[in-house]
Amino acid sequence: MERIYVDHAATTPMHPAVIEKMAGTMAAHFGNPSSIHSYGREVRKIVDEARFGIARSIGAAETEIIFTSGGTEADNYAIFGAAEANKDKGKHIITTRIEHHAVLHACEELEKRGYEVTYLPVDETGIISITDFQKSLRDDTILVTIMYGNNEVGTIQPIAEIGQILTGHQALFHTDAVQAYGMEKIDVHELKVDLLSVSAHKINGPKGIGFLYIKNGMKLAPQSFGGDQERKRRAGTENVPAIIGFFEAVKLMEEDREKRREQYKLYKETIIDTLKTNQIVCTINGTLESSLPHVLNLSFPGTNVEALLVNLDLAGIAASSGSACTAGAVEPSHVLVSMFGKKSDKLTNSIRFSFGISNSVEQMKKVGDEMTKIVQRLTNK
Questions:
Q1: 101, 140, 270, 331: which sits with the fewest CB atoms below 10 Å from its CB?
Q2: Residue 38 pLDDT > 90
Q3: What is the pTM assigned to this prediction?
């Protein structure tokens, strides 16, 4: 039985070229980048080259990139670092109700420490209201953290518009771009963001590595203490093989980003058209117009998400009910709750399909056909 993986928003398989590059690095370069002898200098050189290339991918300077252990650490560093460094200017923070838990739980922790957090609502497509945002913005707001593209339904927020509104305001602007990076063309200057989080394992790179963009001149309180690595902002010896693997994934991503975008849009259309042809009733959670190309979240009335996932798995198809970080949780998706309310049937009958380089149109047709069988079986139609 062919196995089909359509859960790339959770994680992606490492690209063979990334594995090869990392293996070569581990075999040839074991030095510590902080060492001044030849072994250290050789490694420092390749780390600097990777930092420069990764920075260029978002229009940043290499001095603005801090390597982290992934998206969660990048989000945490941005939020706690900004809050603690600017608490003398105020203690108000703005975010949204549909953020990744790396952001939401960080904000909840700050509330326990005496900060005030405004959680912006979203409409049924998952987008915030700019009017709501402007009304919530105060003189004592020190941080705005709003994700670029949602990991469960793919909705893209008006980041550039928010950045423009914040021009001249004291608040730092952070965006979690973990799902968007690699799919959307990102320029931090056009977006007018001060902080931006990325993770490598979402773009066919290794797990355990990511970065935080910190605009030059921005002050963040350090969250780890030790050596002077990462411009004295993140202590600890750099994960050199992972950094090099990350850079290789970035280069591959930049080579065919537009091709991937078109492919993934076609995959969405293929699944939807197959279901329609087979007369399966379903609705899109979110919007096709302002959405990440690789994420498709569908609601199937009269079904149950657990039964859907189990039957998909038995058919060799790996999909998801939403965020991998809440897999197995009893509570419904906080994203869908925010979009549709606590009583909506969509909370218990929605599936996320997310696409990657291992997929094909033929696979998407099979996904649509298998979903047809499963839905018909579960609804006795």
A1: 331
A2: yes
A3: 0.95
